[in-house]
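Chapter summary example.
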Amino acid sequence: MNALISILLFVAVLSVLGAVIWAANRLFNLAAGKMGTTLHCMMCGSDVKIRSVTRGNTGIELILWLCFLVPGLIYSVWRVSTRYKACSNCGAVNLVPLESPAAVAHRKSLGIPNIAP
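The structure predicted for these 117 residues follows.
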């Protein structure tokens, strides 16, 4: 019984620690201007704020953490290491800065007026 309580306490501490690290990372990214940057999507032609997409499934990650420490850790590291920035409209990954020559040419080909400098 004491071993079960110790394991549950350990899992609870890891969960709280993970939540604190996630929140700190999120705040750091917002402060550094990494989140919410507006880019031009070369697929749909939108000027959108980027979103971070994490591969995998949160439910599977939670189950792996609750069942076994090592598989949960491996899965979490894989999910974090395969994050990517995507268009918030269509999910495409080919995003370019708004003022880049590619974005200007793409807007022109679509008949969208260019943004004033």
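To summarize the output: The radius of gyration is 20 Å.
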